[in-house]
Write a structure and sequence with these properties.
Blueprint (H helix, E strand, L loop, with lengths): L2 E6 L8 E6 L2 E8 L2 E6 L13 E10 L5 E14 L6 E3 L15 E7 L2 E5 L1
Antiparallel strand pairs: 1-9, 2-3, 3-4, 4-8, 5-6, 6-7, 8-9
């Protein structure tokens, strides 16, 4: 399968998204904890540049014994990619929309060779 160069491993950090265009399709590539993720840069909601949003841990409410909300905490192992247009959140590792796991971003495989990051198209 054809591959497109997205950059070197040094070009990426947890805050960086690199976008490559293949046959008119924008693909956003991000890294987190040494893993690379590539998705079509198009939010399922209204087509926003989802891959260019921030990555945040899932926010979880802490519920007290009486049912009241006692605060919030972050689940650092469950990272969400947040679309900058309207805040739709997707699981960074799967591309699934967290509001309905039946919806997902179009995913592309990545491969790394000799410190070069490629998207398989």
């Amino acid at each position: 399968m054809p591959e497109v160069l997205a950059g070197t491993t040094a070009d990426f950090s947890d805050a960086v998204c690199r976008v490559v265009t293949v046959d008119g399709v924008e693909i956003g590539v991000r890294s987190r904890d040494g893993q690379f993720y590539a998705y079509e840069n198009r939010c399922r909601h209204m087509g926003g540049p989802v891959c260019e949003g921030v990555v945040v841990p899932r926010v979880e409410e802490v519920v007290a014994a009486d049912g009241s909300i006692a605060g919030h905490h972050f689940v650092e192992t469950d990272l969400h990619l947040v679309c900058p247009w309207h805040g739709y959140e997707y699981d960074l590792r799967t591309g699934e929309f967290v509001g309905s796991r039946a919806l997902a971003l179009r995913r592309f495989e990545t491969t790394v060779r000799d410190d070069q990051v490629y998207v398989v198209v």
